[in-house]
Amino acid sequence: MSDRFGTVEFDAETRRYRARYDFETTAPSVAVADVLETVFDGERGREPLYDVIDPEAIDRLLEGGAERDRHGPRSVSFRYRGALVTVVSDGSIAVGLDDEIDR
Fold first, then answer.
1. pTM of this prediction?
2. Distance between CA atoms of 8 and 5, rounded to whole angstroms?
3. Residue 70 lies in a domain
């Protein structure tokens, strides 16, 4: 995993991975790609992120700014390899696993 992150933690009870990124220095698309690579043991090439969602769109939707953050953090959720991925403008990422994950 990249030096831009702390650890990716897994909660067995909720079957959810959680990570944080520095939204002021790291693009959300880069952060989510790194987290997914960690969660899926480096198998990112099997289904590239850009085949599921436009990484530039994630960055545009979650980019900061006083006016945009006036109503609180924004989030983007999408499915990737049987998991629900949620990226939030406050620097958090959650990857929730379904019962039968496509590995």
1. 0.81
2. 8
3. yes
